[in-house]
Amino acid sequence: MCELLGVSSRVPMALGPLLLRFADRGGKAADNPDGWGLAYVGDTGLVLDKAPEPAAESQRFAHLAETVNSSLAIAHVRKADPPTEHTVANTHPFLRECCGRVWAFAHNGTVPTLLEPGGCCRPHSTQPSGATDSEVAFYFLLEEIAVVVAQNGADDAPWLETVRQLSAAIAHYGRFNFLLSDGRLLIAYGHDRLHLLRGRAGDSMFAAVATEPLTAGDWEAFHPGALKVFLEGELLQ
User: Fold this and answer.
1) Where do the domains of the chain lie?
2) Domain 3-235 of CATH type 3.60.20.10
3) 3-state secondary structure string, 139-171?
4) What confidence tier does 237 reach under pLDDT thresholds 50, 70, 90?
5) pLDDT digits over 14-64, tens only?
6) Which of 3, 39, 67, 122 is the S-S candidate for 211 at Cβ 3.0 to 4.6 Å?
7) Which residue, among 4, 222, 218, has the nearest Cα to 93 in the 3D structure?
């Protein structure tokens, strides 16, 4: 099964200590050898790098872990289930523009009905480039977010409530843990398998969300079905 890591902080922080431990989950300490990806906020907004190879063996991932400082990041290591091609298109995170901003999304779990013709929760106007249920779910959520934003403007509360309701609906059909960001907020939905660590990096608070605890810190398991929203390392809801 895939694994997730998300980080939110007020100021850019060194991600290496978490990312290097996370890399081990990509084919060494855990059986997630089918790809890795990292989306993070850089100088010009969200940046994405990913490859269909084990993170534990990737010099590229190790270089990113050692050099990237960011206030917001989403990382993913992939176990293809059911087996699909090991391609960049099937590797998480995914990026997409919506509502005047760029969004990132990564998913852990399986929701087979999303890939069925006429199945639940399929996007109407966005064509996935890969073959994963995760990308389908992402584009469906974005289309629904776009509708709510068009009706309510810049207020975050309405579209966050829509995400909360739709996440529970999708999870009804399978396993649906995910990280979502618009480059500002980090949104984490834990259907059955997420953990939260809150701490301090220098003078700034940070929050880290991971499928499995990555350090010896005080990681707290999400309650099943919990959606948490972070801004600059602080828990908003």
Assistant:
1) 3-235
2) yes
3) HHHHHHHHHHHHHHCCCHHHHHHHHHHHHHHHH
4) confident
5) 999 999 999 999 989 898 999 999 999 999 999 999 999 999 999 999 999
6) 3
7) 4
| Residue showing tokens 């929050």 | 207
Place of tokens 């059911």: 82
Q: Which residue pairs from 55-59 have beta carbons closer than 8 angstroms and sit at least 24 positions apart in sequence?
A: 55/22, 55/23, 55/25, 55/26, 55/27, 56/23, 56/24, 56/25, 56/26, 56/27, 56/28, 56/29, 57/27, 58/23, 58/26
pLDDT digits (tens, 9 = 90+) for 124-166: 778 888 989 899 999 999 999 999 999 998 899 999 999 999 9
**Which of 189, 161, 226 is CA-nearest to residue 74?**
189
Instruction: At 136, list the tokens.
Output: 């389908």
